[in-house]
């Protein structure tokens, strides 16, 4: 229920802001607005404003629209002709069309800024032992390394305030098929060095558990057993919540990342391998023989003990002042928009996986997860979706605001509007492209939830 409510609230808010942008600029330009609708289909609620605009809430909340007076849609009374959209100057029509995405973009900036102003407790970018064979291990990262900055070229650096910042930068580079450079030091900030993470070698891969394992970045945490699933392999071995793992097969266990990797690799082909564990329990050392169970994950056989591992990571409180927070909102929104456009371009050219596209099921799932995590994570989710909506609507596709802006660009350059015949053909092509994109995104959602990739 939380997921559904969080998703519907996000959808209603972002659609309302988008349509409000169109509405306000249309009114400012002297255009008469006939209807401002959130949703489609049967009208559930209706109110008429002072300016004669009909405000409605409809049954299907998967979009919205602002219907303006327009001679192309039907007869217009002579005394209202000046209020028709099609009679306004080109610059005003373009401003009205662009106002929807612009409103979503401004909302994203303000929400990102609000997250920065409010601040939050987040894991510090201090890393645990990289998984064997991972990009992090090959780059030379070690347990206890503190990553303080990232760079796309090793020249211009951007400060890292937390582990989520680091993971965001790394996954963005992987999606774009580019390397990322890290500035790392020891836990006290000494002996800084630059490292290159070869994320371009994982270009085209869909984001999933296996991908993050191959990247190999995780927070440093003590090798404690948090919980044990009843009836699981760990429970059968006699492991208990609160056990501290000292060694596995005689090899010391420095942290939770090392422990997780050791468990994952405890098999030979299709056969699990029994491990000799030494744990500290209530001040005493206990030897345990632990045999994992093999499960299928992302097309690979992985060993699992069905236990929760790791103490809470070191946390830091990150917040910003009024000006810094607002500037951070501007930077985050711009960086995300540029990355989104570049990723779409790479998907079109085949350089990035189309599995990076997400649909309504994934968005709803993220909405629920962020709402359960707290107010600040939900605000950040809203900011990201609002910006995605702005960028999507600016794509030069008929039926989207970006497509109408392309019509206006043609009109401005040629001195004549796009003919109705061409508009009809382009509308059909645009509808087909959007339907294919929606089908692909929904297919990706189903595949993710079914565990197919």
From TrEMBL:
<protein>
    <recommendedName>
        <fullName>Zinc metalloprotease</fullName>
        <ecNumber>3.4.24.-</ecNumber>
    </recommendedName>
</protein>
<keyword id="KW-0482">Metalloprotease</keyword>
<dbReference type="InterPro" id="IPR008915">
    <property type="entry name" value="Peptidase_M50"/>
</dbReference>
<keyword id="KW-1133">Transmembrane helix</keyword>
<keyword id="KW-0479">Metal-binding</keyword>
<feature type="domain" description="PDZ">
    <location>
        <begin position="213"/>
        <end position="257"/>
    </location>
</feature>
<dbReference type="InterPro" id="IPR041489">
    <property type="entry name" value="PDZ_6"/>
</dbReference>
<feature type="transmembrane region" description="Helical">
    <location>
        <begin position="95"/>
        <end position="118"/>
    </location>
</feature>
<dbReference type="Pfam" id="PF02163">
    <property type="entry name" value="Peptidase_M50"/>
</dbReference>
<keyword id="KW-0472">Membrane</keyword>
<dbReference type="GO" id="GO:0008237">
    <property type="term" value="F:metallopeptidase activity"/>
</dbReference>
<dbReference type="InterPro" id="IPR001478">
    <property type="entry name" value="PDZ"/>
</dbReference>
<keyword id="KW-0862">Zinc</keyword>
<dbReference type="InterPro" id="IPR004387">
    <property type="entry name" value="Pept_M50_Zn"/>
</dbReference>
<keyword id="KW-0645">Protease</keyword>
<dbReference type="Pfam" id="PF17820">
    <property type="entry name" value="PDZ_6"/>
</dbReference>
<keyword id="KW-0812">Transmembrane</keyword>
<keyword id="KW-0378">Hydrolase</keyword>
<comment type="similarity">
    <text>Belongs to the peptidase M50B family.</text>
</comment>
<dbReference type="InterPro" id="IPR036034">
    <property type="entry name" value="PDZ_sf"/>
</dbReference>
């Amino acid at each position: 229920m939380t997921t559904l409510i969080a998703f519907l609230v996000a959808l209603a808010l972002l659609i309302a802001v988008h349509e409000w942008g169109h509405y306000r600029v249309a009114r400012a330009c002297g255009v008469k607005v006939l209807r401002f609708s959130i949703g489609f289909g049967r009208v559930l609620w209706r109110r008429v404003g002072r300016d004669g605009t009909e405000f409605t809430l409809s049954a299907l909340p998967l979009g919205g629209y602002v219907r303006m007076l327009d001679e192309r849609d039907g007869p217009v009374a002579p005394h209202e002709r000046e209020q028709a959209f099609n009679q306004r100057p080109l610059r005003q029509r373009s401003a009205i069309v662009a106002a929807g995405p612009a409103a979503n973009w401004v909302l994203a900036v303000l929400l990102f800024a609000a997250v920065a102003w409010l601040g939050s407790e987040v894991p510090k970018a201090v890393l645990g032992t990289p998984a064997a064979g991972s990009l992090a291990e090959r780059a030379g990262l070690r347990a206890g390394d503190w990553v303080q900055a990232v760079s796309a070229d090793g020249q211009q650096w951007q400060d890292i305030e937390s582990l989520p910042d680091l993971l965001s930068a790394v996954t963005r580079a992987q999606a774009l098929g580019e390397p990322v450079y890290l500035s790392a030091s020891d836990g006290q900030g000494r002996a800084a060095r630059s490292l290159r993470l070869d994320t371009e070698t994982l270009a085209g891969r869909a984001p999933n558990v296996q991908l993050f394992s191959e990247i190999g970045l995780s927070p440093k945490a003590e090798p404690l057993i948090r919980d044990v699933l009843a009836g699981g392999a760990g429970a059968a071995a006699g492991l208990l919540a609160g056990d501290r793992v000292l060694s596995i097969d005689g090899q010391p266990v420095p942290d939770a990342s090392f422990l997780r990797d050791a468990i994952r690799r405890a098999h030979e082909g299709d056969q699990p391998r029994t491990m000799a564990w030494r744990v500290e329990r209530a001040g005493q050392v206990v030897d345990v023989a632990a045999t994992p169970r093999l499960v299928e994950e992302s097309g690979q056989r992985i060993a699992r003990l069905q236990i929760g591992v790791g103490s809470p990571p070191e946390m830091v409180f990150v917040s910003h002042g009024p000006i810094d927070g607002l500037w951070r909102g501007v930077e985050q929104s711009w960086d995300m928009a540029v990355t989104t456009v570049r990723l779409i371009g790479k998907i079109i050219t085949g350089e990035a996986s189309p599995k990076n596209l997400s649909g309504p099921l994934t968005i709803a799932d993220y909405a629920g997860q962020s709402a359960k995590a707290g107010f600040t994570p939900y605000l950040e989710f809203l900011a990201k979706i609002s910006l995605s909506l702005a960028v999507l609507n600016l794509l030069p596709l008929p039926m989207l605001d970006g497509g109408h802006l392309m019509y206006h660009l043609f009109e401005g350059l040629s001195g004549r509007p796009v003919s109705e015949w061409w508009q009809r053909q382009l509308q059909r092509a645009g509808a087909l492209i959007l339907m294919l994109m929606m089908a692909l995104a929904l297919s990706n959602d189903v595949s993710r939830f079914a565990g197919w990739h």
